[in-house]
Amino acid sequence: HLSRRLEKVAEYVLHEGTIADIGSDHAYLPVYLVGNGICEYAIAGEVNEGPLASAKEKIRQNQLQDKVEARLGNGLEVLEGRKADTVVVAGMGGPLIADILENGQSYLPDVKRLVLQPNIAADHVRRWLYKNGWSLIEEAAVEEEGHVYEVLCADRSGVNPYSKDEFEKQMWLGPYLMKQRNAAFMSKWKKEYDQLLRIQAQLQMAENARTFERQKEMKQKLTWLEEVL
Ligand code: SAM
Fold first, then answer.
1. How far is the CA of 191 from the centre of ligand 1 (A)?
2. 17-50 burial, b for 16+ CB within 10 Å, e for fewer?
3. pTM score of the predicted model
């Protein structure tokens, strides 16, 4: 049984071949995918010994040792000597996910799909995708225990349909999420809108050359939100 967040991640994984789950912790996702015959083989990557031990324990409990391999390593380096059809990086901050992809470029040529679930700052991940020949094919916003999680699904169709002006707005809000405008998305951005208003008021009080750029950025973001909310 997966959380709603990981259920959505599982939905976007290619239903074939090998999946690599980077930062797998308890290996819930690989065990679920292989245990249910959705994928044939999985690699659970972990940079830390503690979570790696949890992953190994979970794999053993489910008697999946011959189909799910837990490997110690930083980011995509656990793909050394292996091939994965889908790579998942979930449950980390957007900037860390973008770094893991950037540092792991040499392991990506054989990968067909990326499923990425940034806990915060998803815009870093979206920008990385479009700057590196990937494009979003689907997105979801899922609410769980009061937090809204964004799940991004990308392949190599390599189309960037956005003009320079449109690009930043799309990367910030998510092109598919902006169209769906589901309850989770709306609740996340309504909160963010109120917070931006408060920050803007504070910046206005401290008005000086240093806050000028931030004010411009706030104003832009507030305008984008007014367009979708
Ligand atoms: N992916 C699981 C999920 O979404 O539920 C676990 C998320 S957990 C919050 C993040 C995990 O990523 C931790 O177990 C941490 O050790 C691991 N991690 C952080 N940086 C990593 C890196 N550079 N390479 C591999 N694993 C990493």
1. 27
2. bbbbbbbbbebbbbbbbbbeebbebbbbbbeeee
3. 0.96
> Residue 168 domain-assigned?
no
Contact 34, 42 (CB under 8 A): yes
Mean pLDDT, residues 13-40: 98
- Asked if 52 and 16 sit in the same domain, the reply is yes
Kindly calculate the radius of gyration of the chain based on its CA atoms and give it in whole angstroms.
19
Pocket test for ligand 1, best of 1, 22, 32 (most atoms within 8 A of CB): 22
Residues 217 and 138 in one domain: no
Per-residue pLDDT tens digits for 188-209: 999 999 999 999 888 888 877 7
Residue 1 is classified by DSSP as: -
Find the 49 Cα to ligand 1 centroid distance in Å: 11
CATH of the domain at 29: 3.40.50.150
Measured by CA distance, the residue closest to atom 12 of ligand 1 is 23
For the CA of 88, the nearest atom of ligand 1: 1
